[in-house]
């Protein structure tokens, strides 16, 4: 019987692996992402029950950004973050896109200036603007 349970640990579902590798906080979120088509396995759309093997590539489209990782380890248990990071390796192309995306987000955020809560005069101007545009 122990051989069967050991063999089952080798066959890990993609939703469970995504959860164990800490891409998603819960298995339910991972399953929903897969069903929405946000996860690809070797370039094709995956189903939550698809089993993963070492060497497979996983495309993860999350928060408007796509990451491509290569599976280096299989686990069905969620562990600490350093252990989870050993389960995959991000491709060079994905890393360069990630850096460009971070720089783009920082530069976009630099133009947004807020001075805190609107005062009474600002609220009146906002209200007039909304009334005029309706």
SSE order and pairing:
Blueprint: H1 2-10, E1 12-13, H2 14-20, H3 27-35, E2 39-41, E3 44-45, E4 51-52, E5 57-62, E6 65-71, H4 81-85, E7 88-90, H5 92-110, H6 120-132
Helix pairs in contact: 2-3
Structure explained in plain terms:
The protein has helices spanning 2-10, 14-20, 27-35, 81-85, 92-110, 120-132; strands at residues 12-13, 39-41, 44-45, 51-52, 57-62, 65-71, 88-90. The chain is α+β, with helices and mostly antiparallel strands. It has one domain (2-111): RNA-binding S4 domain (Structural Genomics Hypothetical 15.5 Kd Protein In mrcA-pckA Intergenic Region, Chain A, Roll), CATH 3.10.290. Strands 3-2-5-6-7 form a five-stranded antiparallel beta sheet. It has a two-stranded antiparallel sheet with strand order 1-4. Strand 5 and strand 6 (65-71) form a beta hairpin. The longest helix has 19 residues, at 92-110. It starts with a helix and ends with a helix. The model is unreliable at 1-8 (pLDDT under 50).
């Amino acid at each position: 019987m122990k051989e069967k349970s050991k063999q089952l640990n080798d066959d890990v579902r993609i939703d469970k692996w995504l959860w164990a590798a800490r891409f998603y906080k819960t298995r339910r979120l991972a399953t929903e992402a897969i069903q929405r088509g946000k996860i690809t396995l070797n370039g094709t759309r995956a189903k939550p029950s698809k089993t993963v093997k070492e060497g497979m590539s996983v495309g993860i489209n999350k928060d408007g950004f796509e990451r491509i990782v290569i599976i280096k380890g299989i686990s069905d248990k969620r562990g600490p973050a350093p252990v989870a990071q050993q389960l995959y390796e991000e491709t060079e192309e994905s890393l360069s896109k990630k850096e460009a995306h971070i720089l783009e987000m920082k530069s976009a955020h630099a133009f947004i200036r807020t001075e805190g809560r609107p005062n009474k005069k600002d609220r009146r101007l906002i209200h007039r603007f909304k009334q005029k545009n309706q």
